[in-house]
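Example 9 (inverse folding). The structure is encoded as follows.
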């Protein structure tokens, strides 16, 4: 729906509409179908639109409630149950001028106040302004699928759907946050909300409503957190009943995400998760579903595509299937575009894959469903059995030892001394998160952390950034909050069974060919990056030897020299290319003009 921006002043001055327009222009690719601004005194809002729900101009934003002009808002995302909510609100006396979900958000806020978010099924970030009080309300969906970045200075708050949009407005503290850099280098580029790598930019946490008063004070309310315990309502359920419950919940989640006034396709990797989405849509009677797959040239002996499986699924369910094979030199050419589309630096190799795939898919459809999130929600990764072996009390240390890229002690040879926190701040974050009640077993604690922190600020952010860079909206049914609640209650042994995602594999066996369900787990391989193929290495070397990098001096020069001397030899504990990790951060900083 696409990107929002805004500014609120607390110092008696009028909002800077020109700054809001610069932020909106920076997000033009996210919303190519329309733009708008609104200003009143200390508040200004901007929006770029991707037409998906109500294609008429009645769905344009910023949108002001037609009844008495009580509320104006901007909205990004989709409320999948907006038709049902519209009818409920009509029965309560509200009148509608459009069929857009944005108007439903406005009316729902008028009816239920900040509790409106509890009625929404979907992915969203929004900003609402109460005309009478001057109060501004910011909100983000339960799983943080849609982003909302904030830049606060004395007397002013700016917000936007992307971090680069805030940079376009200027006057942002772009100094690096040592704690965030520590997380980036420890946690596979995850930087947990509210932090970003920049001191002057923060993120509204998922499942949070923030009410900002005219004097600049604010209060936050976290409105959702599922319990990772064995709940009474599921007592006595056996493995078959859990399988059927998961399949039914996923079917509902996939069906919800077909709500659209334009065609919806599927990103089909050929793995269990995306294949299940295709199978469920076929089971619903959907014909000629458009599916899309991407592959890359082999490098370093590593195969770069999984077309064998995606083709199998496409044939099985008779989809309208498209393949994209990307040569290695195209990866290096697309790298700078992908980095420019990143709101924060992301090191996973598949970021370029999603960027290139989204470029092609956006020529065919505006909306796709994606299988992102299933591995975190249903314990699909190979390290989860190891995390489940220890006691609940020992889980934080096992998690750090298993999942982190490197221990705190190793960072002394990576970072310059003034950028290295004295304490293991990343490990402390894990220990603090896992100490919170509501996670019964060691695996429950790990899955809660991964689903509500790591997933939000790595895989989900990656998909949103890369798809929206091309005006493509990605919907993630495995992050349907009701499905996540069900999975959180599911016994760990059912998730760990059969090499991981056991209960989901059992559901898959009811619909999919056995070759897809029982195949080895695949990833989105991009061998040119993993093995530092020629053009990629040239770009990495250029960035690390640039004057900006030398002046910044973020990394120890001896460490950089060591990595450049053997680009494909140095690996983090997770197996990632260590050179790529430091280079990507420097490339991102240079790309976004951060000195």
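The amino acid assigned to each position is listed next.
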């Amino acid at each position: 729906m696409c990107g929002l921006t805004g500014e609120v002043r607390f110092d008696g001055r009028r909002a800077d509409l020109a700054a809001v327009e610069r932020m909106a222009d920076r997000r033009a690719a996210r919303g190519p179908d329309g733009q708008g601004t609104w200003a009143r005194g200390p508040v200004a809002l901007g929006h770029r639109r991707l037409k998906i729900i109500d294609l008429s101009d009645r769905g344009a934003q910023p949108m002001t409630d037609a009844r008495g002009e009580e509320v104006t808002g901007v909205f990004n995302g989709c409320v999948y149950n907006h038709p049902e909510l519209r009818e409920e609100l009509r029965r309560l006396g509200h009148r509608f001028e459009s069929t857009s979900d944005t108007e439903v958000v406005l009316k729902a806020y008028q009816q239920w106040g900040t509790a409106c978010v509890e009625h929404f099924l979907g992915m969203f970030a929004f900003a609402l302004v109460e005309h009478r009080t001057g109060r501004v309300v910011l909100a983000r969906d339960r799983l943080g699928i849609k982003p909302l970045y904030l830049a606060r200075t004395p007397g002013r708050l700016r917000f936007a759907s992307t971090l680069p949009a805030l940079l376009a407005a200027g006057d942002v503290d772009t100094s690096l946050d040592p704690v965030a850099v520590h997380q980036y280098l420890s946690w596979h580029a995850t930087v947990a909300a509210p932090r970003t790598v920049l001191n002057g930019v923060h993120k509204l946490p998922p499942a949070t409503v923030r009410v900002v008063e005219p004097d600049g004070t604010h209060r936050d309310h976290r409105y959702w957190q599922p319990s990772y315990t064995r709940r009474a309502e599921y007592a006595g359920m056996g493995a078959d009943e859990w399988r059927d419950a998961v399949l039914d919940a996923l079917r509902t989640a996939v069906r919800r995400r077909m709500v659209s006034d334009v065609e919806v396709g599927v990103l089909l990797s050929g793995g269990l998760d995306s294949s299940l989405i295709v199978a469920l849509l076929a089971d619903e009677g959907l014909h000629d579903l458009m599916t899309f797959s991407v592959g890359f040239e082999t490098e370093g002996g590593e195969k770069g595509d999984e077309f064998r499986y995606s083709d199998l699924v496409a044939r099985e369910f008779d989809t309208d299937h498209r393949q994209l094979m990307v040569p290695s030199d195209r990866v290096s050419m697309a790298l700078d575009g992908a980095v420019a589309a990143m709101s924060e630096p992301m090191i996973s190799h598949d970021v370029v894959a999603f960027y290139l795939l989204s470029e092609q898919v956006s020529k065919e459809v505006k909306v796709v469903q994606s299988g992102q999130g299933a591995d975190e929600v249903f314990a699909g990764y190979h390290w989860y059995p190891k995390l489940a072996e220890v006691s609940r009390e020992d889980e934080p240390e096992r998690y750090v030892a298993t999942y982190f890229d490197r221990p705190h002690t190793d960072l002394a040879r990576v970072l310059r001394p003034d950028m290295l926190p004295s304490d293991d701040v990343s490990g402390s974050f894990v220990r603090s998160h896992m100490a919170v009640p509501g996670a019964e077993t060691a695996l429950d604690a790990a899955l809660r952390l991964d689903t509500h922190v790591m997933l939000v600020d790595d895989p989900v952010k990656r998909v949103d950034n890369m798809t929206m860079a091309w005006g493509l909206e990605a919907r993630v049914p495995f992050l349907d909050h009701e499905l996540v609640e069900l999975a959180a209650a599911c016994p760990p042994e059912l998730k760990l069974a059969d090499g991981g995602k056991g209960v989901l594999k059992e559901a898959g066996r009811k619909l999919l060919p056995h070759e897809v369900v029982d195949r080895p787990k695949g990833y989105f391989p991009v061998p040119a990056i993993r093995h530092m193929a020629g053009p990629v290495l040239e770009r990495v070397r250029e960035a690390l030897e640039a004057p900006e990098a030398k002046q910044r001096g973020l990394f120890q020069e001896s460490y950089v020299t060591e990595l450049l001397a053997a680009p494909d030899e140095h690996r983090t504990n997770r197996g990632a290319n260590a050179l790529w990790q430091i280079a990507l951060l420097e490339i991102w900083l240079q790309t976004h003009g951060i000195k």
